[in-house]
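Reopening this ticket.

The earlier resolution said the output was attached, but the attachment link was broken on my side. Pasting everything inline this time so it's all in one place.
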Amino acid sequence: MLEKTPEEVYEESAEKGHYEEANLEKDEAKKILELTVEDYEYGKMLRNGSKANWRVIFNIHYDVLRELSSLLMRFKRQKTSNHQALFAFLILNFPELNLVWEFFETARKMRNQNKYLGKDISKEMWKKVEFQIDLYIVTFHKEIEERLSQQ
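Inline output:
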């Protein structure tokens, strides 16, 4: 099966009506950012536990990444509940962030296999995405704070 490019996913998602207009409420965005950063810090703490559950750790981090991605999308006055459409939108609308499509697809597929097929997430699987997921969370957090300060 051929992988779709972000352009193909974006176009298909737009045709299917996955993108909707949305406003950015500054106070709401600040609160969402605060809670999301709290979740991220908790997820990082769990990594150091003696009985770390890598599935739980991955899911916390993926949710943080998705939430920050959704928040970023709001700056372009758009929203979507489709994760693949969300990540394609980010790739195409935030080129200055130099995002890697293959990473988003890897993380999204790991999440879907876990949620819909019951596949567990091992430490080795987590380690394959850990660096980039941390990098993107920190990058998105910084970008959102900068944009909120300009509002």
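Reporter confirms the inline version is readable. The chain has a mean pLDDT of 95. The longest strand covers residues 20-21.
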